[in-house]
Design brief:
- This is Flagellar biosynthetic protein FlhB.
- Keywords: Cell projection, Cilium, Flagellum, Membrane, Transmembrane, Transmembrane helix.
- By secondary structure, this protein is α+β, with helices and mostly antiparallel strands.
- It has three domains: 71 residues, no CATH class; 72 residues; 92 residues, name from scop, CATH 3.40.1690.10.
- The protein is built from eleven helices and four strands; from the N terminus they run ααααααααβββαβαα.
- A four-stranded mixed sheet has the order 3-2-1-4, sandwiched between helices.
Length: 318
Amino acid sequence: MGAGLVMLLFYLPGQYASFMRAMAVLMFHAGDDGLSLAALGRIAMRHGLALVVPVGGFAAVATVGLGLFQTGFLLRPEGIMPDMGRISPVKGLTRVFGTGGLMEGGKALLKIGLLGALVYGVARRSLLEGLSLVGVGPVPLCGTLLHAFARLSMTLLAGYVVIAGLDVFWRFRHRLSKLRMSRQELKDEYRETEGDPHIKGRIRQLRTRMARQQMMKAVKQATVVVTNPTHYAVALVYERGAQAAPKIVARGVDEMAARIREVAMANHVPIVPNPPLARALYPLPLDTEVPVEHFRVVAAIIAYVWRIRKGQGVQAGR
């Protein structure tokens, strides 16, 4: 519409005067024997098309060009192929009376109301000015009508700009609302990508239980259990000649520490209270060797345990 309005303002003013002169010549020679009605019609149509085609052609080229620019020059030839679903009465009624159809109908009514009010305001003013055009010649009359039409077109164009801006804003919000996922959809997507939280929790419980069982088995074979004496418990194993340094095979705090002490007592594993050493060794991962800075303390504890066992063996021999 804007492109057509530009052509009207810049092209027609230089053409309608020659068009009116051509029409005057045709009217003057309308009764000549050498010109038939068909010939006169062809001449009039040629001059009329010379006015209309440039304006309409420029508007059409602008429409197609802006449409391609808006879609990123995306062409979809299959969109013009016949589709029985488009003429289905049921689907048609669904589109018309559905939520989207009702919204589009409401917007169409608002557009008609706004544009109708604009047209009424411009037309009322133009009709009042038309009373002074009685007796005006063809060329000045065409100029006045052209300006009235241009004023109406610019008013409608401004109205369409407002409508288009509101429509773009509404469609943007509507699309965002459709793209938002519900709480259930978020849960389903999380299950598909990350797995069911209940299953993952169950797997973690099973892994924790298996790890505890493995630790309890390791406690039975431990050399000594170092305690805090109630909050921490760390089980160490050392085989002379088989490894360079003692290893941490089990560790726990509070309830787990109490369970380690119970298993150690049931399997006659010595329990040695040493709070600083127990707190220092607890953060270390399982199956890691005791750090060098704790060698002397750990070595003294293991030597103490061996002396106790040796003494118990002597007493048992007696």
